[in-house]
């Protein structure tokens, strides 16, 4: 029973992260999705491309093959190639659909199985935790960029600050 509850909580938390990023996307103009402060900084679109590439690699044949697929071009994920918001969202949804399909296929008995990521063994629990940390890191970046671009028009995606009269 603990394993089933753990998987339920993972699904909820990951879905919350996905919705948080999508709330940020909705507050940014189409051109804002491709904005980056400097050559060393990633745009929202590039972060989406990287997350999608990671998800497709990690979660395709999750229990039976290394999570770092030979077909993955990680460096290429950091080169912007989307032509518009719709292209970006297609990639976003491909990654999430791949992740959620793998997550839905897991049973509580799978949690202590060993999977390989970059030729290193991890329990399924460790792999899930590793990915949750990775996704939350990048989704935090997306929210931060979106908040900067939206400026005073930003609508809080969590508990808004109380407005005090001065």
Characterization of this structure:
With 166 residues, the protein is mainly α. 53% of the residues lie in helices and 5% in strands. The chain has 4 helices and 2 strands; from the N terminus they run αααββα. The chain has helices spanning 2-25, 44-59, 85-105, 124-150, and strands at residues 114-117, 120-123. A two-stranded antiparallel sheet has the order 1-2. A hairpin with a 2-residue loop joins strand 1 and strand 2. The longest helix is centred in the last third of the chain and has 27 residues, at 124-150. It is globular. It starts with a helix and ends in a 16-residue tail after the last helix. The mean pLDDT is 94.
Task: Note the main attributes of this structure.
single chain, 166 residues, mainly alpha, two-stranded antiparallel sheet, 53% helix, 5% strand
Q: What's this, in brief?
A:
The chain contains 4 helices and 2 strands. The chain has 166 residues and is mainly α. The longest helix is centred in the C-terminal third of the chain and has 27 residues, at 124-150.
Uncertain segments of ≥5 residues (pLDDT<50)? Answer: none
Briefly note the structural class of the backbone: mainly alpha
Number of strands: 2
Rounded to the nearest angstrom, the distance between the terminal CA atoms is 52 Å
* Oligomerization: single chain
Give a topology summary.
Elements: H1 2-25, H2 44-59, H3 85-105, E1 114-117, E2 120-123, H4 124-150
Antiparallel strand pairs: 1-2
Helix pairs in contact: 1-4, 2-3
């Amino acid at each position: 029973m603990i394993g089933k509850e753990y998987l339920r909580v993972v699904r909820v938390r990951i879905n919350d992260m996905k919705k948080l990023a999508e709330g940020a996307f909705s507050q940014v103009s189409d051109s804002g999705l491709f904005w980056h402060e400097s050559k060393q900084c990633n745009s929202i679109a590039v972060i989406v491309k990287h997350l999608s590439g990671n998800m497709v690699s990690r979660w395709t044949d999750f229990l039976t093959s290394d999570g770092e697929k030979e077909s993955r071009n990680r460096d290429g994920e950091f080169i912007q190639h989307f032509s518009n918001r719709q292209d970006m969202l297609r990639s976003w949804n491909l990654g999430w659909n791949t992740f959620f399909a793998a997550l839905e296929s897991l049973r509580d008995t799978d949690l202590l199985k060993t999977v390989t990521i970059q030729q290193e063994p991890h329990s399924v629990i460790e792999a899930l935790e590793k990915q949750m940390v990775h996704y939350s890191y990048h989704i935090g970046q997306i929210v931060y960029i979106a908040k900067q671009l939206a400026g005073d028009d930003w609508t809080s995606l969590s508990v808004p600050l109380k407005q005090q009269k001065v």
